[in-house]
Design brief:
This protein has ten helices and 14 strands. It is an alpha/beta fold. The chain folds into two domains: 200 residues, DHBP synthase; 79 residues, Threonylcarbamoyl-AMP synthase, C-terminal domain (Rossmann fold, 3-Layer(aba) Sandwich). The longest helix is centred in the last third of the chain and has 17 residues. The protein is globular. The termini are far apart.
Length: 302
Protein backbone atom coordinates (compact mmCIF):
# COMPACT_ATOMS: atom_id res chain seq x y z
CA UNK A 1 0.00 0.00 0.00
CA UNK A 2 2.82 2.44 0.87
CA UNK A 3 4.63 1.67 -2.40
CA UNK A 4 1.45 2.31 -4.38
CA UNK A 5 0.83 5.56 -2.47
CA UNK A 6 4.34 6.80 -3.28
CA UNK A 7 3.82 6.03 -6.98
CA UNK A 8 0.57 8.01 -6.98
CA UNK A 9 2.09 11.00 -5.20
CA UNK A 10 5.13 11.10 -7.48
CA UNK A 11 2.79 10.98 -10.49
CA UNK A 12 0.91 14.03 -9.22
CA UNK A 13 -2.00 12.16 -7.65
CA UNK A 14 -3.78 12.53 -4.32
CA UNK A 15 -3.51 10.10 -1.40
CA UNK A 16 -5.52 10.31 1.82
CA UNK A 17 -3.64 8.97 4.82
CA UNK A 18 -4.09 8.80 8.60
CA UNK A 19 -2.34 10.95 11.16
CA UNK A 20 -2.88 11.15 14.91
CA UNK A 21 -4.95 14.31 14.46
CA UNK A 22 -7.21 13.84 11.39
CA UNK A 23 -6.87 12.19 7.99
CA UNK A 24 -4.87 14.26 5.51
CA UNK A 25 -5.32 14.66 1.77
CA UNK A 26 -1.77 14.42 0.47
CA UNK A 27 -0.06 15.85 -2.60
CA UNK A 28 3.61 16.30 -3.49
CA UNK A 29 4.51 19.62 -1.88
CA UNK A 30 6.92 20.46 -4.72
CA UNK A 31 4.45 19.76 -7.56
CA UNK A 32 2.38 22.82 -8.53
CA UNK A 33 -0.04 20.81 -10.70
CA UNK A 34 -0.71 18.30 -7.92
CA UNK A 35 -1.28 21.13 -5.46
CA UNK A 36 -3.72 22.86 -7.80
CA UNK A 37 -5.67 19.62 -8.05
CA UNK A 38 -5.65 19.25 -4.26
CA UNK A 39 -7.11 22.75 -3.83
CA UNK A 40 -9.73 22.04 -6.50
CA UNK A 41 -10.83 18.76 -4.91
CA UNK A 42 -11.17 20.37 -1.49
CA UNK A 43 -12.76 23.53 -2.87
CA UNK A 44 -10.15 25.41 -0.87
CA UNK A 45 -9.42 29.10 -1.56
CA UNK A 46 -6.04 29.42 -3.26
CA UNK A 47 -4.81 31.97 -0.72
CA UNK A 48 -5.40 29.58 2.20
CA UNK A 49 -2.15 27.69 2.93
CA UNK A 50 -1.83 23.99 3.70
CA UNK A 51 0.50 22.17 6.07
CA UNK A 52 3.47 20.23 4.70
CA UNK A 53 4.21 16.93 6.43
CA UNK A 54 7.67 15.45 6.84
CA UNK A 55 9.14 12.24 8.22
CA UNK A 56 11.70 13.73 10.61
CA UNK A 57 12.72 16.89 12.44
CA UNK A 58 15.85 17.32 10.29
CA UNK A 59 13.61 18.16 7.34
CA UNK A 60 12.87 21.55 8.86
CA UNK A 61 16.02 22.72 7.11
CA UNK A 62 15.16 20.91 3.88
CA UNK A 63 11.66 22.34 3.53
CA UNK A 64 12.25 25.61 5.39
CA UNK A 65 15.10 28.07 5.77
CA UNK A 66 16.49 30.43 8.41
CA UNK A 67 15.10 28.09 11.07
CA UNK A 68 15.34 29.59 14.55
CA UNK A 69 16.61 27.87 17.67
CA UNK A 70 13.13 28.16 19.16
CA UNK A 71 11.71 26.25 16.18
CA UNK A 72 14.32 23.54 16.64
CA UNK A 73 13.52 23.32 20.35
CA UNK A 74 9.81 22.92 19.65
CA UNK A 75 10.50 20.27 17.01
CA UNK A 76 12.80 18.34 19.31
CA UNK A 77 10.25 18.47 22.13
CA UNK A 78 7.03 17.68 20.30
CA UNK A 79 7.77 15.81 17.06
CA UNK A 80 6.43 13.43 16.05
CA UNK A 81 3.24 15.01 17.30
CA UNK A 82 0.36 17.44 16.76
CA UNK A 83 2.41 20.62 16.36
CA UNK A 84 2.92 22.65 13.18
CA UNK A 85 5.74 25.18 12.93
CA UNK A 86 5.50 28.11 10.51
CA UNK A 87 8.95 28.88 9.09
CA UNK A 88 10.33 30.57 5.98
CA UNK A 89 9.66 28.45 2.88
CA UNK A 90 12.56 26.90 0.96
CA UNK A 91 11.95 27.50 -2.77
CA UNK A 92 12.20 24.39 -4.89
CA UNK A 93 11.22 22.08 -2.05
CA UNK A 94 7.82 23.61 -1.33
CA UNK A 95 5.90 25.17 -4.22
CA UNK A 96 4.23 28.53 -3.58
CA UNK A 97 0.87 26.91 -4.43
CA UNK A 98 1.06 25.16 -1.04
CA UNK A 99 1.43 28.40 0.85
CA UNK A 100 -1.02 30.73 -0.85
CA UNK A 101 1.95 32.46 -2.45
CA UNK A 102 3.47 33.30 0.92
CA UNK A 103 7.13 33.07 1.84
CA UNK A 104 6.29 30.94 4.88
CA UNK A 105 5.18 27.34 5.26
CA UNK A 106 3.72 25.28 8.09
CA UNK A 107 5.63 22.02 8.67
CA UNK A 108 4.94 19.11 10.99
CA UNK A 109 6.03 15.53 11.67
CA UNK A 110 2.90 13.46 12.40
CA UNK A 111 2.77 10.79 15.10
CA UNK A 112 1.27 7.89 13.17
CA UNK A 113 3.19 4.84 11.90
CA UNK A 114 1.41 4.77 8.54
CA UNK A 115 1.99 8.47 7.92
CA UNK A 116 5.64 8.20 8.91
CA UNK A 117 6.18 5.15 6.68
CA UNK A 118 4.67 7.01 3.73
CA UNK A 119 6.65 10.18 4.38
CA UNK A 120 9.88 8.27 4.86
CA UNK A 121 9.34 6.38 1.61
CA UNK A 122 8.66 9.47 -0.48
CA UNK A 123 11.54 11.40 1.05
CA UNK A 124 10.22 14.94 0.51
CA UNK A 125 7.37 17.00 1.86
CA UNK A 126 3.72 16.06 1.42
CA UNK A 127 1.20 18.88 1.57
CA UNK A 128 -1.85 17.55 3.38
CA UNK A 129 -4.83 19.52 4.63
CA UNK A 130 -7.70 17.55 6.16
CA UNK A 131 -9.23 15.08 3.69
CA UNK A 132 -12.68 16.68 3.41
CA UNK A 133 -14.39 19.47 1.52
CA UNK A 134 -13.23 22.90 2.64
CA UNK A 135 -14.90 24.26 5.76
CA UNK A 136 -16.71 21.05 6.66
CA UNK A 137 -16.17 18.57 9.49
CA UNK A 138 -12.71 17.01 9.46
CA UNK A 139 -12.39 13.22 8.93
CA UNK A 140 -11.09 10.96 11.68
CA UNK A 141 -11.67 7.62 9.89
CA UNK A 142 -11.08 6.35 6.38
CA UNK A 143 -14.86 5.95 5.99
CA UNK A 144 -15.27 9.70 6.59
CA UNK A 145 -12.79 10.40 3.78
CA UNK A 146 -14.57 8.12 1.33
CA UNK A 147 -17.95 9.64 2.23
CA UNK A 148 -16.65 13.17 1.63
CA UNK A 149 -14.33 12.78 -1.36
CA UNK A 150 -15.34 9.57 -3.12
CA UNK A 151 -13.47 9.03 -6.38
CA UNK A 152 -11.85 12.48 -6.24
CA UNK A 153 -9.01 10.93 -4.21
CA UNK A 154 -6.82 8.32 -5.91
CA UNK A 155 -6.09 6.22 -2.82
CA UNK A 156 -7.29 6.12 0.78
CA UNK A 157 -5.02 4.39 3.29
CA UNK A 158 -7.00 3.07 6.27
CA UNK A 159 -5.03 3.46 9.48
CA UNK A 160 -7.94 3.24 11.90
CA UNK A 161 -9.51 6.05 13.94
CA UNK A 162 -7.32 9.05 14.73
CA UNK A 163 -5.98 9.04 18.29
CA UNK A 164 -6.08 12.80 18.99
CA UNK A 165 -9.05 13.78 16.85
CA UNK A 166 -8.49 17.53 16.44
CA UNK A 167 -5.94 19.32 14.31
CA UNK A 168 -2.43 20.34 15.30
CA UNK A 169 -1.45 23.44 17.19
CA UNK A 170 0.15 25.95 14.80
CA UNK A 171 2.96 28.18 16.03
CA UNK A 172 4.58 30.97 14.02
CA UNK A 173 8.31 30.89 14.74
CA UNK A 174 9.40 33.38 12.07
CA UNK A 175 9.36 36.47 14.32
CA UNK A 176 11.25 37.55 17.43
CA UNK A 177 8.76 35.73 19.67
CA UNK A 178 6.69 32.62 18.85
CA UNK A 179 2.92 33.02 18.54
CA UNK A 180 0.08 30.50 18.48
CA UNK A 181 -1.98 30.81 15.29
CA UNK A 182 -4.25 27.83 15.98
CA UNK A 183 -4.87 25.96 19.23
CA UNK A 184 -4.70 22.21 18.87
CA UNK A 185 -3.15 18.98 20.06
CA UNK A 186 -0.17 20.50 21.94
CA UNK A 187 -1.20 22.72 24.83
CA UNK A 188 -0.02 26.28 25.18
CA UNK A 189 1.28 25.47 28.66
CA UNK A 190 3.61 22.83 27.23
CA UNK A 191 4.86 25.27 24.61
CA UNK A 192 5.40 27.96 27.24
CA UNK A 193 7.49 25.54 29.31
CA UNK A 194 9.98 25.25 26.44
CA UNK A 195 10.56 29.01 26.04
CA UNK A 196 9.99 30.00 29.68
CA UNK A 197 7.11 32.39 28.96
CA UNK A 198 3.51 32.30 27.66
CA UNK A 199 3.11 32.55 23.90
CA UNK A 200 1.01 35.23 22.28
CA UNK A 201 -2.22 33.89 20.76
CA UNK A 202 -3.19 35.19 17.30
CA UNK A 203 -5.99 32.82 16.35
CA UNK A 204 -8.54 35.21 14.83
CA UNK A 205 -8.54 35.84 11.10
CA UNK A 206 -4.99 34.64 10.50
CA UNK A 207 -5.04 33.56 6.84
CA UNK A 208 -1.38 32.59 7.26
CA UNK A 209 -2.61 29.49 9.13
CA UNK A 210 -5.09 26.78 8.09
CA UNK A 211 -8.38 26.33 9.91
CA UNK A 212 -8.60 29.81 11.40
CA UNK A 213 -11.51 31.27 9.48
CA UNK A 214 -14.28 32.47 11.79
CA UNK A 215 -16.62 29.81 10.36
CA UNK A 216 -15.05 26.38 9.89
CA UNK A 217 -15.32 22.68 10.89
CA UNK A 218 -19.07 22.88 10.20
CA UNK A 219 -21.65 20.10 9.89
CA UNK A 220 -24.79 20.65 7.80
CA UNK A 221 -26.87 21.16 10.95
CA UNK A 222 -26.72 24.45 12.80
CA UNK A 223 -24.48 24.27 15.87
CA UNK A 224 -25.19 26.15 19.09
CA UNK A 225 -22.75 26.13 22.00
CA UNK A 226 -24.61 26.26 25.32
CA UNK A 227 -23.73 25.99 29.01
CA UNK A 228 -24.65 22.63 30.51
CA UNK A 229 -27.21 24.11 32.97
CA UNK A 230 -29.06 25.63 30.00
CA UNK A 231 -28.95 22.53 27.80
CA UNK A 232 -32.32 20.94 28.62
CA UNK A 233 -34.24 24.21 28.48
CA UNK A 234 -32.73 25.23 25.14
CA UNK A 235 -33.46 21.79 23.66
CA UNK A 236 -37.07 22.03 24.84
CA UNK A 237 -37.40 25.53 23.37
CA UNK A 238 -36.05 24.46 19.97
CA UNK A 239 -38.34 21.42 19.85
CA UNK A 240 -41.30 23.64 20.66
CA UNK A 241 -40.30 25.73 17.64
CA UNK A 242 -40.45 22.62 15.45
CA UNK A 243 -36.69 21.89 15.26
CA UNK A 244 -35.20 18.43 15.56
CA UNK A 245 -32.35 18.57 18.06
CA UNK A 246 -29.18 16.57 18.62
CA UNK A 247 -27.08 16.91 21.76
CA UNK A 248 -23.31 16.76 22.06
CA UNK A 249 -22.54 16.88 25.78
CA UNK A 250 -18.93 17.25 26.88
CA UNK A 251 -17.57 14.13 28.58
CA UNK A 252 -15.46 14.63 31.67
CA UNK A 253 -12.35 13.40 29.82
CA UNK A 254 -11.31 16.24 27.50
CA UNK A 255 -9.05 13.96 25.46
CA UNK A 256 -12.02 11.68 24.84
CA UNK A 257 -14.11 14.67 23.75
CA UNK A 258 -11.43 15.61 21.22
CA UNK A 259 -11.32 12.04 19.86
CA UNK A 260 -15.09 11.80 19.37
CA UNK A 261 -15.90 15.41 18.42
CA UNK A 262 -15.90 15.17 14.63
CA UNK A 263 -17.36 11.66 14.53
CA UNK A 264 -20.27 12.74 16.74
CA UNK A 265 -20.94 15.82 14.61
CA UNK A 266 -21.06 13.58 11.55
CA UNK A 267 -23.36 11.07 13.28
CA UNK A 268 -25.80 13.82 14.22
CA UNK A 269 -25.74 15.10 10.64
CA UNK A 270 -26.63 11.60 9.45
CA UNK A 271 -29.71 11.77 11.70
CA UNK A 272 -30.71 14.95 9.80
CA UNK A 273 -31.20 17.04 12.92
CA UNK A 274 -31.79 20.75 12.46
CA UNK A 275 -29.73 21.94 15.42
CA UNK A 276 -26.84 20.44 17.36
CA UNK A 277 -26.57 21.70 20.93
CA UNK A 278 -23.01 21.29 22.20
CA UNK A 279 -21.44 21.97 25.56
CA UNK A 280 -17.83 23.10 25.43
CA UNK A 281 -14.97 22.25 27.80
CA UNK A 282 -13.15 25.10 29.46
CA UNK A 283 -10.61 26.95 27.27
CA UNK A 284 -7.88 26.46 29.85
CA UNK A 285 -4.82 26.12 27.64
CA UNK A 286 -4.98 22.35 27.24
CA UNK A 287 -6.78 20.19 24.67
CA UNK A 288 -10.05 21.69 25.87
CA UNK A 289 -9.02 24.93 24.18
CA UNK A 290 -8.90 23.16 20.83
CA UNK A 291 -12.30 21.53 21.28
CA UNK A 292 -13.88 24.82 22.37
CA UNK A 293 -12.27 26.58 19.40
CA UNK A 294 -13.66 24.05 16.89
CA UNK A 295 -17.14 24.29 18.36
CA UNK A 296 -17.11 28.09 18.25
CA UNK A 297 -16.10 28.07 14.59
CA UNK A 298 -18.68 25.41 13.73
CA UNK A 299 -21.34 27.53 15.44
CA UNK A 300 -20.31 30.58 13.42
CA UNK A 301 -21.13 28.81 10.14
CA UNK A 302 -24.84 29.66 10.11
Amino acid sequence: MIERAVEILRAGGLVAFPTETVYGLGADAANPDALRRLFAVKGRPHDHPVIVHAARTAQLDELGRDVSQVARAFGDAFWPGPLTLVVARRPGRVAPEATGGRDTVGIRVPDHPVALALLDAIGGGVAAPSANRFGRVSPTTAAHVRADLGSDVDLVIDGGPCAVGVESTIVDVTGPAPAVLRVGGVSEDRLAAIVGAPLARRTSGEVAAPGTLAAHYAPRARVEVVDRPDLAARAEQLRAEGCSVGVLDAPADVAEYARILYARLRELDERHVDVILATAPADNGDLGAAVADRLRRAAAAR
